[in-house]
């Protein structure tokens, strides 16, 4: 199968995503990542487009399960209705605990969820990339906050960090966090 054929088959999947030619970048991740401090609720402030989170008031809540895996509960509001999805995250290599894997289905492999930087109390920068036969890659990047808003300076710092790691954020968009409950 030619590269063009593969691209045509994948086009519906990537139309709402951010893709770039070549293999995934390999950004540095949070040194000495502390999962216990990272757990809890994070609000999505900005992200690269995805086909799975298109609503508003998007948030993620991370908690530790008894088996050592991480419960991921993502929610968003679409047409006035709250939509939740539960998944599982794992630290795939204890030598690099900031490189987690996340799955929202028992039948799909873990996708990368790399904590590039976090101060644990205000802001977190997360990156994920799926490499498609080293011809192109699909990027995901998020700027998260412990509250529904984040100062423009912190957003710019987060964006500059992603840029410095070779990640194209030209399609990054703010998330509507006007939810009326905070």
Features of the shown structure:
182 residues, alpha+beta, Lipocalin, globular, disordered N terminus
Task: Describe the 3D structure.
The structure is a single chain. Helix content is 16%, strand content 42%. With 182 residues, the chain is α+β, with helices and mostly antiparallel strands. The protein has 3 helices and 10 strands; from the N terminus they run αβαββββββββαβ. Strand 7 and strand 8 form a beta hairpin. It is globular. Strands 2-3-4-5-6-7-8-9 form an 8-stranded antiparallel barrel. The protein has one domain: Beta Barrel (Lipocalin), CATH 2.40.128. The model is unreliable at 1-16 (pLDDT under 50). The protein has helices spanning 3-14, 35-38, 152-164, and strands at 18-21, 40-47, 56-64, 70-78, 81-91, 99-103, 111-118, 123-132, 136-145, 173-174.
- Helix-strand topology string: HEHEEEEEEEEHE
What is the number of strand segments?
10
Arrangement of strands in the largest sheet: 2-3-4-5-6-7-8-9
Count of individual helical segments: 3
The CATH homologous superfamily is termed Calycin beta-barrel core domain
What is the count of distinct domains? 1
């Amino acid at each position: 199968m030619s590269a063009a054929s593969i691209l045509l088959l994948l086009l519906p999947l990537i139309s709402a995503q951010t893709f770039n030619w070549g293999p995934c970048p390999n950004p540095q991740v949070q040194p000495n990542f502390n999962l216990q401090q990272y757990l809890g609720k994070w609000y999505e402030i900005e992200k690269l487009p995805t086909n799975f989170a298109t609503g508003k008031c998007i948030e993620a809540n991370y908690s530790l399960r008894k088996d050592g895996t991480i419960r991921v509960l993502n929610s968003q509001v679409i047409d006035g209705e709250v939509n939740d999805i539960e998944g599982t995250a794992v630290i795939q290599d204890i030598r690099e605990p900031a490189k987690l894997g996340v799955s929202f289905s028992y039948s799909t492999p873990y996708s990368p969820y790399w904590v590039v930087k976090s101060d644990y109390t205000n802001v977190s920068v997360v990156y994920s990339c799926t490499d498609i036969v080293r011809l192109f890659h699909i990027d995901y990047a998020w700027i998260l906050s412990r509250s529904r808003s984040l100062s423009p300076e912190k957003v710019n710092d987060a964006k500059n960090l992603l840029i410095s790691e070779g990640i194209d954020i030209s399609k990054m968009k703010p998330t509507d966090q006007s939810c009326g409950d905070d």
